[in-house]
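Our consortium's second objective concerns turning raw sequence data into structural hypotheses that experimental partners can test. To show how far this objective has progressed, the report includes one record in full. It was chosen at random from the queue rather than selected for favorable results. The single chain below, 203 residues long, was entered without modification.
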Amino acid sequence: MKLELARAGDAAPHRRDDAPHRRDDAPHRRDDAPHRRDDAPRKRDDAPRKRDDAPRKRDDAPRKRDETQVKELLAECELPYQDITPAHMRHFWVLRDGSRLAGVVGLELLGEVALLRTLAVRASYRGRGFGSRLTRAAEEYAISQQVDTLYLLTTTAEAFFAKQGYHQVDRTAAPAAVQETAEFRSLCPSSAVCMTKHLRPQT
């Protein structure tokens, strides 16, 4: 099964790939009537602002769709979602099966450290390595954002994260910026295990 991994809010590229033949099947259409483009060239220039006046309209739809689906999946998995905002979604990655959300991972960037605040895979997609794929995507993104260390809280996935190279630490050992997040302060229970992973060699 091949699923698409993308930044949350990005338009799904598979839609463009589903029908590439449409552009190739009828290339003569462009050549049969080239005069149409020359007869009325001003039509493109008469209202050029239409493309620029509302660029966000094209972007808002996938962002809102992903945010809604992410929250629904987290609720289904009994994971915190109440504090997620569009700003948080900028650092989320989603795994799609067509229009269906199969999994999600999200970071909260805090300078040189970050909170891996969300990792969820829909029940029907589990056991296929998608959780590891999402985790790697989050780590690679964190590195690209100059993050040195990731922290997380978990109540059920300690064994999974241990296999990904995370180790348990005392909750109070997390940096102040991490402890001040909503997940640390109120959303996750005090019984949640705190884990960390260094993404860069420690000097």
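The partners drew two points from this record. Confidence is low (pLDDT under 50) at residues 13-35, 50-59. Residues 102 and 122 are 5 Å apart (CA to CA). Both points have been shared with the crystallography group to help prioritize constructs.
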